[in-house]
Each structure stands twice: as C-alpha cells, then as structure tokens.
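Extended Data, panel c. Modelled sequence:
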Amino acid sequence: MNQSEVRGPASEEDSPRESISGSQDRVPGRRTLVIGYGNPLRKDDGLGWHAARLIAARTAGRAVEVITCHQLTPELAETLSHFSRAVFIDADAEGQPGEIHQRPVLPEPPAPSAFTHTCTPAGLLASAQQLYGHAPEAFVVTVTAQSFEFGDGLTPIVAAALPQVADYVCKVVDAI
C-alpha cells in the first residue's frame, strides 16, 4: 500500500479538511477510514487531529486513509461509502478527563434541524447508505476533555490517552 502523506491545507485559510494518509483505491471490504475531528485551537477539542496524526504514522503502508476536519459535514458521506470500516475520533465533554470511550455506530437518519451544517457519525452513515448504497461498519472513539479553552496543545491527561486511542484504532484496522 501507500505510505502516509499529508494532503490538505497549507494554512488555516485553506480547506478545513486534511487527508493525512491513504491511497486512491477505495474499495469496500479492504480499507479503513479514520476521521479525527474537532478544533485544534481549543486545547483538548483538537484530540481528533492529534490522534489522527499518530494513527497515520502507525498505520503507514497499510489499507488506511486518515483525515482531519473541524467538523463532520455532509460531504463526508460520499467518502465513507468507499470504505468497509470507519473510525471517528473526537473529544467528549462527558465523564472524567482522560477517560476513553469506544462504541459501535449504526446508521441513523438525523432528526430534522434548522442547523443542517452539523452532522453526526450515525447521520453520515445513514446518508452514505441512502445516497451511495454503502455504509461502512463504524466506531466512535472519544476521550473526555479537561479543557476546551483557547490554546493549541492538549492537556497532559488527554495527551496521555493518545497511545491507547491509537492502539484501539490499530486493532480495528487489523481486524479487517
């Protein structure tokens, strides 16, 4: 497979979505998509970005594509439809800081809302299934944040959870 590469914005003014690794052969049944999301300028909210970069380095050369984005958007449904498995990584506000939670996600259409620019993993899976005929098996991994204050680094307790998050995602990748 391909080795990891950064494919995305050179600055904040560029695209809000960055692909860290992956190849062009998107074939359901053979590939995993990892989506790390959140705001890297709000301390622990940047967990998804930090985790995605670590996972990209650890899965280089494997059937994995890793992307980062500030928020989940409807356009990701098409991307998801090309993969057999997906892992969403985000910071969480519920629980004790540093706690890691993993759970499977099933497609679930979103409730009608005036705020259509926000998406959930379950809603994206439902869109992928409905619009493109395929939704991957999916998981969400979260770490409870200690701080969402302005700043570009993770708090020590959340940073300490990164290796465990990467371990979990690597196990998901290996399960294919």
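Strands lie at 17-21, 32-37, 64-69, 85-92, 100-105, 137-144. This feature is highlighted in the accompanying rendering.
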